[in-house]
Amino acid sequence: MHHLNEGDPAPVFEAKDQQGRQQTLTDYSGQKLALYFYPKDNTPGCTNQACSLRDGMADLEKAGIKVLGVSINHAASHQKFIDKFDLPFDLLVDEDHALQEQYGVWGLKKFMGREYDGTHRTTFCIKEDGTIAAIIRKPKVKEHAQEVLAAFADER
Predict the structure, then answer these.
(1) Mean of pLDDT values over 27-56
(2) 73: which of 15, 82, 85, 140 lies 20 to 30 Å off by Cα?
(3) Sign of CA dihedral 128, 132, 136, 137
(4) What is the rounded distance in angstroms from the CA atom of residue 81 to the CA atom of residue 72?
(5) If you average pLDDT over residues 44-68, what whole number do you get?
(6) Are 132 and 124 in contact (CB under 8 A)?
(7) What is the DSSP string of 99-111?
(8) C-alpha–C-alpha distance, residues 68 and 22, integer Å
(9) Mean pLDDT, residues 110-131 taken together
């Protein structure tokens, strides 16, 4: 599991979104991108996080920030999640967690005394030139849009 740091080039990913469209990092070059990795569609923390981004969308758009979510759920699950909460951004399908391994967010987790492999909730704020401006390692799910705005604003 390699460790990315601020200032590193963001790994170039390729993955399909909820509609089966292929997306890659280069699609977003020249734009700011909040690439956020979350454990699972429709779970409380992930829903709060997605809804925070949805509710903050006007401010994010004003700041020129695109949002892209990633989890191990399949496309149909993503589409349901989007429809249910009216999410205005795409969700990438990473069922084999290759993308999460690329970004170093897949690994050992502990929950109620059990250990298992899973997604570490992490958001990468990627600048127009494809370098990482900031890494939000433990997002506050209910204030996540503000965190993303602040992370990009601090980066001058």
Answers:
(1) 96
(2) 140
(3) positive
(4) 13
(5) 97
(6) yes
(7) HHHHTT-EEEEEE
(8) 13
(9) 94
Query: Which residue, chain included where needed, has tokens 């433990």?
Result: 138
Residues 6 or more apart whose CB falls under 8 angstroms from that of 84 comprise 42
- Give the H/E segment covering residue 34: strand 32-37
| Catalytic residue set | 46
DSSP, res 134: E
- Cα 4 to Cα 138: distance, rounded to the nearest angstrom: 15
First to last CA, the chain: 29
Mean pLDDT to the nearest integer, 104-126 = 93
What structural domains does the chain harbor? 14-154 (3.40.30.10)
Half-sphere exposure at residue 14, Cβ-oriented, CA atoms within 13 angstroms: 1
Backbone angles phi, psi at 16, to 5 degrees: -90, 150
